[in-house]
Amino acid sequence: MISVSNITVASDYVASRARKMLCRNVAPFEWKVTPLDGKEHTIKRVRFVKRARGYTVECESFYDAVPCEANSFGNLCAHVWRTVEQLRINEIRRQRREERQAA
Fold first, then answer.
1. d(CA 16, CA 82)
2. For residues 77 and 10, what is the distance between their CA atoms, to the nearest angstrom?
3. pLDDT tens across 23-72, in order?
4. How far is CA 103 from CA 78, 89, 98, in A?
5. Least confident of 17-21, 67-71, 84-88
6. How many CB atoms lie within 10 A of CB 60?
């Protein structure tokens, strides 16, 4: 698990892998991250879990809930980075939409 407040910058390797993935919201606080190569065994579920000291992020296999290797050691994986980037993109889009409607 990774604390959301600890996610600031990804390494070049993680960022380049994350660019090759698609991300979609499947439930509240839950995202499905799929690589563009379509390998089914690498589809991951990223969940945001509310804890006493803020939110943590968990990454696990979508079908059998095996934890992501990087996250089990507290490291940032490409799946989590892709989800965080998608959330940032969605926030920018929402702000632009509100600005257009206000004008």
1. 10
2. 9
3. 999 999 999 999 988 776 788 999 999 888 888 899 999 888 888 888 87
4. 38, 21, 9
5. 67-71
6. 17
Q: What is the pTM of this model?
A: 0.86
Tokens of 58: 């968990």
Rg (CA), the chain: 14
Place of tokens 């920018």: 92
How long, in residues, is the chain? 103
State the Cα angle at 58 between 18 and 8, rounded to 5°: 55
Compute the distance between CA of residue 72 and CA of residue 38 in angstroms, rounded to an integer: 24
